[in-house]
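Could you please consider the sequence and fold appended to this message?
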Amino acid sequence: MSRAAAIHLLDCLHDAQSAFYAGEPDDVLRSLLDPDVTWTVPGDSAIAGTHRGIEEVLAYFERRRALSDRTFRMHRLDVLTGDGERIAALTDGVATIRGAERRWSTVGLYEVAGSRIAACWLLPLDQRAFDAIWRAG
């Protein structure tokens, strides 16, 4: 996958996620995800786990939307591609959670099938801080 194609796909994904987190319907986001998508979030938080299938992944996104009171935004910083169908993206996140603005950085490793995201493995740069940000209540 070319770097330009990867950036375009991730920008579309992040735009759709931002719209969804702000309360928009999930139709655009759904169109970017493979029906059998898997989303893996390590750690010990309210969003951690392996979410399988589009309904579980959308439920995970809904959980993030609720915990962030619809304030969650992502900012793509850099993208790494190669000859295959995988993309690595360094992304910063920001949200107001429990009344405080929180910031974190992750690497998302994405697997692409056709023009859709088939899998994501989220890798927080500071796991302990990420878990504290996304703990429930």
Remarks:
- The chain is about 35% helix and 40% strand.
- Residues 3-21 form the longest helix (19 residues).
- Strands lie at 33-41, 49-52, 73-81, 86-97, 100-113, 116-124.
